Amino acid sequence: xxxxxxxxxxxxGLAAVMNLRDxxxxxxxxxxxxxxxxxxxxxxxxxERKELEMQYAEAIKPKVVSDEVVVEFKPLVELTSPQxxxxxxxxxxxxxxxxxDGSGKQANKAPKIGGQMAWYLEKQLKDMKDLIRNNKNxxxxxxxxxxxxxxxxxxxxxxxxxxxxxx
Length: 167
Ligand code: HEC
Known about the structure:
The chain is mostly helical. It has a domain at about 80-160: Cytochrome c-like domain (Cytochrome Bc1 Complex, Chain D, domain 2, Orthogonal Bundle), CATH 1.10.760. It has helices spanning about 1-25, 35-60, 80-90, 95-100, 120-130, 140-145, 145-160.
């Protein structure tokens, strides 16, 4: 019995080897593979991907803020009290988005705040600090402000010229 099994296995092996030898006689025909064409296709694909990546990077780029840092600027408000002086000093950090005159910048999605009523400005800033109102651009700023700072800023900002500039 064992011999029969071994013999059968031998036959199967022999058949397999003969089959494989048949394959080695098949002629390889590469004529349908055009290297230059494939290369061009690949390059076009890579170029398209690069363009898409650039478009994507452009699309997700935050539309906010130049890295302009304002150190000193001429007040547009007469600094007649210590509160206004403090407000003026604090307002430096707002200029990138809201502009010197508080007219806002649409590119930064920052609204006009100059000349707005002080109580309203104070309430908005307080609400943002207390996370009742939340905006990712304002959040890190109000976090650093004390309630006293907020009051001074509100008074100062309310005295800025209301500038009906539309951008
Ligand atoms: C990084 C940009 C940026 C900076 C800097 C910035 N803001 Fe804003 N501010 C915004 C944006 C954006 C909004 C709109 C918030 C919203 O859509 O809820 C806003 C909203 C406001 C509002 C609410 C206006 C309204 O009519 O409800 C006030 C008040 C305000 N900012 C004051 C300030 C003050 C004061 C500073 C400086 C201490 C400042 N912001 C700095 C971007 C900025």
